[in-house]
């Protein structure tokens, strides 16, 4: 709770200390100085609390990164599902302290780690630029070797290129590869294939920070679980994988399937309403509200959910 309980206790002791000091104030010979002592103790406890908070945040972020690298997004979600949220009662969570905490301190630690990593990336890029600037002579020498310089009868300088020169084909191939890499970077942003280890670590930290923020807002109740399953289904194009995600996440009970089906229906209605011409005057053609919230995909998920429900209902009636 960001030290709220500690602040309340210290405030109470500060008021008591002020009452004990009275007119003596900080004069210990007159029986004063209690407030200053409480102030010193409060500063120590606040510093200790922040150090412990940072320690927990560091351990939690390390645990999240380790799980993400070893088990992927699915393993990360399983870990996040069992973590304590800010404001939760630790006594109600079995092993909550070992599972880590999702709170503002964790987000602040990740943002600080991102700033430090950005400085490392910037420093590495500057060193690379300096090294590139310091060694252009080799390239110029190669270019000079490709050109054949002669003089004509009238004394004019004639520069020619021998197409059979192997050095020429090597330079052309290098330039072609460079142009291809530039096109990839412009079209797809910073491609993972061309990113350095430091840049990949920076990207990983940013993605983890955003994921933690979303998880802290959504929570870990049934509605959050359904939103998570729907997001996975929208990212999956395979019908069998969608069916497997729904079955593993919701089980065989009809009640959770009904709630999830209602969520999908509400998402379809929302997407269709936002893509309606009445909301966007002047645009004749309906557009997708977002690349993720696609009506056709949502309708496909809806059909799969209804099939699972029908299958479970048939099994239940057959069992009876």
Characteristics:
mainly alpha; two-stranded parallel sheet; 11 helices; 4% strand
Task: Describe the protein in words.
There is one protein chain. With 320 residues, this protein is mainly alpha-helical. Helices cover 71% and strands 4% of the residues. It has eleven helices and four strands. It has helices spanning 4-21, 34-81, 96-99, 104-134, 137-146, 166-188, 197-218, 222-235, 239-250, 254-274, 295-319, and strands at 84-85, 101-102, 147-151, 157-161. It has a two-stranded parallel sheet with strand order 1-2. Strand 1, helix 3 and strand 2 (101-102) form a beta-alpha-beta unit. The protein is flat and about 105 Å long. The relative contact order is 0.06. Residues 182-189 have low confidence and may be disordered.
Structural class: mainly alpha
The total of beta strands comes to 4
Distance between the termini: 51 Å
Overall radius of gyration: 32 Å
- Note poorly predicted spans: 182-189
Shape: flat
Mean pLDDT: 75
Helix content: over 70%
Query: Strand arrangement, largest sheet?
Result: 1-2
The run of helices and strands is HHEHEHHEEHHHHHH
Summarize the structure.
This protein has 320 residues and is mostly helical. It is built from eleven helices and four strands; from the N terminus they run H-H-E-H-E-H-H-E-E-H-H-H-H-H-H. The chain is flat, with a radius of gyration of 32 Å.
């Amino acid at each position: 709770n960001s030290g709220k309980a500690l602040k309340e206790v210290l405030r109470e002791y500060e008021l008591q200390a002020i009452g004990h000091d009275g007119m003596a104030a900080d004069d210990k010979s007159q029986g004063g100085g209690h407030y200053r002592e409480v102030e010193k103790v409060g500063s120590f406890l606040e510093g200790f609390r922040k150090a412990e908070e940072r320690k927990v945040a560091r351990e939690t972020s390390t645990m999240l990164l380790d799980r993400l690298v070893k088990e992927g997004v699915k393993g990360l979600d399983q870990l996040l599902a069992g973590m304590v949220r800010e404001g939760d009662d630790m006594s109600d969570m079995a092993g909550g302290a070992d599972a880590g905490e999702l709170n503002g301190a964790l987000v602040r630690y990740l943002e600080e780690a991102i700033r430090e990593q950005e400085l490392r990336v910037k420093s590495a890029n500057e060193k690379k630029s300096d090294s590139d600037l310091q060694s252009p002579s080799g390239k110029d020498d190669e270019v000079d070797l490709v050109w054949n310089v002669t003089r004509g009868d009238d004394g004019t300088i004639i520069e020619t290129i021998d197409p059979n020169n192997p050095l020429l084909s090597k330079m052309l191939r290098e330039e072609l590869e460079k142009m291809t890499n530039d096109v990839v970077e412009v079209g797809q942003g910073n491609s993972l294939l061309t990113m350095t280890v430091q840049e990949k670590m920076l990207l990983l930290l940013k993605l983890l920070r955003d994921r933690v923020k979303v998880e802290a807002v959504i929570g870990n109740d049934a509605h959050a679980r359904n939103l998570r399953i729907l997001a996975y289904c929208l990212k999956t194009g395979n019908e069998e994988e969608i069916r497997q995600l729904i079955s593993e996440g919701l089980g065989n009970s009809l009640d959770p399937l009904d709630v999830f089906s209602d969520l999908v229906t509400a998402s379809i209605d929302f997407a269709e309403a936002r893509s309606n011409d009445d909301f966007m005057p002047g645009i004749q053609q309906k557009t997708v509200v977002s690349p993720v919230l696609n009506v056709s995909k949502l309708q496909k998920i809806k059909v799969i959910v209804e099939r699972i429900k029908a299958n479970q209902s048939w099994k239940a009636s057959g069992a009876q």
